[in-house]
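Why this split exists: single-chain examples teach little about how molecules sit against one another. For that reason, every record in the complexes split bundles all components of an assembly together and asks for one structure covering all of them. Below is a record exactly as it appears in the raw files.
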Amino acid sequence: MSDVVKPVLQVNGLTKVFDRRLACQDISFTLHRGEVLGIVGESGSGKSTLLKCLAGLMPPDAGNITLSLPDREECDLWRLEEAERERLLPTILAIIHQNARDGLRLDVSAGGNISEPLMTNGHRHYGTLRSVAMEWLKNVEIDPARVDDLPQTFSGGMQQRLQIARGLVTHPQLVLMDEPTGGLDVSVQAKLLDLLRRLVREFNLAVVIVTHDLGVARLLSDRLMVMQSGRVIETGLSDRVLEDPRQPYTQLLVSSVLQV
Amino acid sequence: MLDDLALNGEAEEYSYGFLDEQTKRMIRRAILKAVSIPGYQVPFGDREIPLPPGWGTGGIQVTASIIGKTDCLKVIDQGADDTTNAVSIRRFFARVARVNTTESTGEATIVQSRHRIPERPLQDDQILVMQVPQPEPLRRLVTSEVETRKLHAFARYGLMQVRLYEDIARYGNIVMSHDYPVRVHDRYLASPSPVPKFDNPKLHRSRALTIFGAGRERRIYAIPPFTDVRSIDFDDHPFERQKWQSCCARCGAEDSYLDEMLLDDAGNTQFVCSDTSYCNDRLSEGASR
């Protein structure tokens, strides 16, 4: 077992303090390619803070985040020079925001939105950019004829799918999602989840998904991490955690899901 | 240049070129830095100038800081030497710096301009000073100065490309006709100030130093001589200059930027050179031939 595949992401003892209050406390986990890690927990439990640290938006106060990428050396995200980090992140990482409007440019057409990450990475051929954009619209089940429409003219679910297309167009290794299905109606949620599942398998993505919807967690994630007041209180395979919750808080969480 | 500025101990000679010596020193430092980092916007302390902001206060301060008694100044506004602003600025420097002024591009050592770069290629001993209203090429896309500085620092200019993409997607070609952003020395994205994109290629490997002064925005940037200046574009939609069907009605030039002039109430128009000095030179050359 010498050539064990290294996990894409290794988080070790990550801690973030806000004004002497611990937002994240000693969080460690690993994530491999093709794996989906769900993070569940009540609001204020540090899920989004953790995601921001992973996304390079907020430096942690302690601990390290190690990235192992196929074509470069292992590196610690927050020990890189800022310029290096800013150059690296857009090529390997995508963030899907809860609100599609945070992740899209509303005054730029759908095609422009999808092509922007490519142009940032130096692509300079209009024809290619456009065909890639149309292909991705098809990938996320939007009619490619709408490539020149503004995102404002799209429905909420379509905007979310557009955001996903924009995130995945650079073929990132790591995708961070913050409540990707929040604020969408149930049938749209179901379609979006199907789509996400397909894309994760197709592109062998490593995904961290923050949610407080246990249904989403069960459908999408292979493993679950339950957080409460900045700590990870329970981890395990999704089915195990949801069928056999061990911590009182997890039991509460699971039992509080409405049964229809 | 210091010799030019010899004060001769006379008090009224102190503020040669209108600005006081400390200010000129500060602006010269900014200019030196701007020349060392082509295309980088250097902040400077904007001083009050007897001219409304937006009329060329930045250009005036740059000119006032580099001008010496032996200089010969030409001022252009929209290509013409005889417009109000050009005449006023020329008179201003004739008075406060006691320099000769000219309307001919060839004779000038300093050319202060807005909206145009002279058609006649500038030479090694000439300096082009551009008046710039908005030095930040990304401003219309990103409103935050903190953001744009980071984008410049990391050379992340994908956003500008998005603007071109949108142009092509909507209109079939890049419709930006003036203030067309350029990459200077393959590094900084810079605004060539609101010159028509026709003038962009003149900046590429120009023999003259070009200094851009934005008074209201308090920025100075420069393109040193022989610097690569590339207008941004797509591989399959390359940068193109404007073209005209006709030639100049006065001098017959086919290679200059033309303005359309209304002739009568019937709506008849003709095209003439926007650069009056170039047009006059061609006419007098033709006459002498």
